[in-house]
Known about the structure:
The protein is 38% helix and 27% strand. By secondary structure, it is an alpha+beta fold.
Amino acid sequence: SLAQITGLDTLTIKSKGFLQSIPENDLSAIRKFFTASTVKNTEPFTKELQLINNKKWVQLSIKPISVSKSDIDFYIITVEDIEFRKNILNKVESEKNNLNTILENTPEGIGLFNKELKLIHHNSLFLEYISSQAVSSEIITQSIRDNNLSEKEIQSKDNHYYSLRIAETLISEEKHFIAIVRDTTNEKIIIEDAGNQIEKFRNIFEKA
């Protein structure tokens, strides 16, 4: 829950919101995003940041939703605990012997590539995604070549949705890349259902 992630009590979140736990420089970027969002510019905002109150690393995602096509009707805001992911980045060098344990403990598909784009470590979930072609290895390696570190949405042949992020890290002073794959199908369904409900209510009011 948001309370567990941010360390704020539910009453504080309801009365003041959770933005008070976000550093000012990150808040500035969020304000610019809201200002720049238009019907013609509905690119999502994604940022990794460290909360002020509990120092926890989270990934904040904001998706503008336009149902009416004439204005942005609402925003879907998700806050994801990425301590596992940060632990991987911080511990890859110091805990190589325990790397497999670290990888298996994260709920995301994780693959570690060297500078030649060879997959050198991965967890079972990442292998499952690649083997089933849910997310192709070609898309991942091309994202690395393009230095595309922003979140990419991928739709598989069976209509599941996945997010792909690429992060850079240094191991023995050599650049490596971590590919992070997450199943976002349920999030996509929730967003679509919310949009459909808004459209239904709008039609009811227009006919009233």
